[in-house]
Amino acid sequence: MKISAIKDLLEADVVCNEEGLNRHVYSACGSDMMSDVLAFVKDQAVLLTGLVNSQVIRTAEMMDMNCIVFVRSKVPTAEMIELAKDSGIVLLTTTKRMYEACGILFSNGLVSNRVKDA
Amino acid sequence: MPDVLNFHFEVDGDDFKSAGHASFICKKNLRQLGISPEIIRRVSIAMYEGEINMVIHARGGSADVNVYEDCIEIILADKGPGIKNIKQAMQEGYSTATDNIRSLGFGAGMGLPNMKRYTDYMDIKSTVGEGTTITMKVNFE
After folding, report:
1. 3-state secondary structure of B87
2. B21 → chain A, closest CA residue
3. What was the ipTM of the complex prediction?
4. With contact defined as beta carbons under 8 Å apart, do A28 and A1 qualify?
5. Domain ranges of chain A
């Protein structure tokens, strides 16, 4: 799914790296616990979260994720935006809540991903 | 013994916001060496979890990443409180982190298990009251 489609489906605003909207993501992960996100491996994934601190960007960076959606109208800080710009990660923000945002993406064909076995 | 490339980082324990900076720089360095993205990701995640642990539990420490011919070795050393029961700490979901840390998105008890999950070798040496040294290796296959 293109990141632009995620933006449209979630009626999201683009916070930064608009030029990345044409890129594709193949899986998604919704969590406010970053270690749970780190337990799941797949690149070209989108992260949906209600957590706002710089570790969200760092986590996405380590996982090679290329898009983060902040749910419940959460707005990333200036410092987070700078980090995301450095890494080319597209930041989106939506008024939808986590459950609804995940449900919309899932029902439109963006599946979750398996947890990598030890 | 083949030549070793070493990256050394000091991890500041006072600033949660800057945690992950060493892992970020390390990842950039490894990319420049042309190492496969999958290997880099495994090293980065393991190091990042370790870095977060050092900031949360041990007021910082040091990280050394050694690139050998056949593997990448990560050594994380701190002078923190040490781990009382390593077996228990390795269980998914077990955590001694505070609610404050959980509100920051960590302390789910996944840090050490994730470090083990993404590496081919992991050894923890810890003495209560003195500190912890974790050695991990990711093999090039």
Report:
1. helix
2. A58
3. 0.91
4. no
5. 3-107
Would you call A35 and B49 a contact, using CB atoms and an 8 Å cutoff?
A: yes
- Answer whether A62 touches B (CB < 8 Å): yes
CA distance B130 to B82: 6
Kindly list the residues from chain A whose CB atom is less than 8 angstroms away from the CB atom of residue B114. 35, 38-39
User: Domain boundaries in chain B?
Assistant: 5-139
Mean pLDDT by 10 residues, chain A (118 residues): 97 98 94 90 85 96 95 97 96 98 96 54
> What is the distance between the alpha carbons of residues B2 and B91, in angstroms, rounded to a whole number?
36
From the list A36, A56, A62, the residue facing B110 with the nearest CB is A36
A63 touching B, CB under 8 A? yes
Which fold is adopted by the domain A3-107?
3.40.1390
∠ Cα B115 A57 B95 (to 5°): 40
Radius of gyration of chain B (CA): 14
Interface test with B, best of A32, A40, A58, A65 (most B CBs within 10 A): A58
* Fold of the B5-139 domain: Heat Shock Protein 90 (3.30.565)
